[in-house]
Model the fold of this input.
Amino acid sequence: MTLSVRHLHKSFGSTIACDGLNLDVAGGELVALLGPSGCGKTTLLRIIAGLELADAGSVQFKGEDLGVLPVRERGIGFVFQHYALFNHLSVFENVAFGLRVRPKETRPDEAELRRRVSELLERVQLGSLGDRMPQQLSGGQRQRVALARALAIQPRLLLLDEPFGALDAQVRKDLRRWLRQLHQELHITTLFVTHDQDEALELADRVIVLNRGRIEAADSDFARRFLGGQGSDIELAAVA
Amino acid sequence: MTIALPAVTPAKQPTSPLPRPTEDPRWLRGLLITLALAFMGLFLFVPLACVFYEALKKGWDVYFAAIVDPDAISALKLTLLAAGISLPLNLAFGLAAAWVVAKYDFRGKQILLTLIDLPFSVSPVIAGLIYVLIFGAQGWFGEWLRDHDIRVIFAVPGIVLATIFVTVPFIARELIPLMQAQGSEQEEAALLLGASGWQTFYRITLPRIRWALLYGLILSNARAMGEFGAVSVVSGHVRGQTNTLPLHIEIAYNEYQFAAAFAVATLLAALALVTLGLKVLVERQVKKTST
Amino acid sequence: MSVASRLLLKRHSVLPGFNLALGFALLYLSLIVLIPLSAAFFKTFTLSWGAFAEAVTAPRVLASYRLTFFASLAAAALNAVFGLITAWVLVRYEFPFKRLIDALVDLPFALPTAVAGIALTALWAQNGWLGHWLPFKVAFTPLGVWVALVFIGLPFVVRTLQPVLEQLPHDLEEAAATLGATRAQALARVVFPQLLPALLTGFALAFARALGEYGSVIFIAGNMPMVSEITPLLIITKLEQYDYAGATALAVVMLVASFALLLLINLLQAWARRRQGATV
Done:
């Protein structure tokens, strides 16, 4: 197993966000974390990325304990719900950011950097928009810039927090199809959070249902209700 | 369906807790806080303390004598008069300007906003000068005023005018952002329910802006009572007649009556502290009631 | 009057009072602000170009421009640096008496300039609390002018930066961290550029305020011609000598500079709004 989460606990004051979570993700898998708002799925994602500290438990990637690594060393690509694009930088510079801040030893030279960024922009179909500013782009375009930016650092794990939440229905549908294609090309281990069951079912290899900080068994009432009775068609992770 | 979980050793906690990615390192925090406190202390707190220290240096007797001195009392009266006249006038202006800017979309709005800010950007000395040019002996109305034996410059009316000029923007600037954020929906609802324009204004608009209005008045008052440069130009510096408190302080200081000058200064400093305290209270209220 | 509203209003509004409110506001502004300000320009027109040029370029006057300009610039610069630090500390950190310090930032707004003037003079004079620590003179020199102007401009940078800092989205810094930036890189490349428009606006506001300042400066300045005389003082000196035309000429120079600055500040604020308003 590439990504292993064990006995993860996290609470904010009296609210329990993660209640002894255990899950595994295989290399190259695209897994959806599905659940109603407040069930802890975003918190789990942020703990894996290092943006939150768990109260107890561990996160391991290919046997390496991620918990000892600070955020900037984890090599995890994160796409935020509201994109968090740097609006004082152009699209090109946004995508190039992760490469520019590397220490001298690992930083690509300017020509190589330009090549890599242009290639990524082409891949997300924004090749001609490199000089634009984020404010000039549509929601769907900004989403793709955010993804390209996360991919630029050649992450070993890709995390997406409600990636299509702020977009309208048609754009969402198109982007879903496109993300699925991208994943098939790149095969990066990907975990994404959503509260939309259609999205989870359409995109993911596997769907993990969360409720109130815990993973729901495949045959639980909640899972069945939440997935509209389609539980038998997908593999669901089990509770420890 | 179950998955066999591989045996995993319990996680090692890192030897020191990792800082959150958006937290600054502790040494930086300490340094910045020290710098900020030193700067504020040096430039704000120390001068404030100095006013009170110098006022009381020669003892309470000297202090009280300076405060109840007849010239000081008449300066206080004139200060209060100037503030008292300028406040309601600027209040009316502020309400009118804020109403227009916040509730309507019209050409030239930006020009109006710039005009409102003009008194802010003009040096107080120039504010006084321009009234001298109009009402002074050689001014536009100089002869007419002389013929009718009315004195504006070097007399009370001039002081009042200069005070009004420098405090024009305050109330408008406090109200405009708030009223813009509040929008016009509630007023439109009131009209639909049959209220007249004035009723809408009194019953719907005013209650929602009352705290910002109060703060604008407080700030405006502090400025009016403390105005120095503009009033200095239009006043005749005649003790007992055309001196405001700040001018009285200047005269006492220039005559080396330091304790007396600082004593009167403590009154204005106390007013400043009250102003700041009221501001904190009002801000708390605004936060509670703003939608 | 309805002609006016038809011409000016971009969108029809059912709210009554447009004509009345706008009319009153404009009338008030004209009487109290615009017409009196125009008096300065009209008075200057009575001077020939030569006389005007002579009045505004006399050596003593030029010296006062230099002092006023550079002291104001230097004071605004110090306020920019420490105002940024203060705003950062007030928004991001917790420490005892933080609320008190925050309220105190507005003291230069609320305190009369004359009171500030005599207090600063007492402090920085050679025998003052602060003055006697220093081997050089502060009060009655241009350095004293600078100190007073720092006091006056202090709130502008802090209060302009605070709302921007408070509304800065957290995910920007988190994004920078996930992309591999160190804290220093994140602060320099992501946070600071977001703050720059507000910082410049605050700097310009402090600068503009310092240029016209009178009350807090004249006590500590020393007011020696060619050395420590600020331009507003020169205006008063000329008035006392009944040189109305000369005083007005200087006033016009200052007014033109003020208006130019006001325009610049408006542009900076529009830039800041554009940057901030773009929620990306």
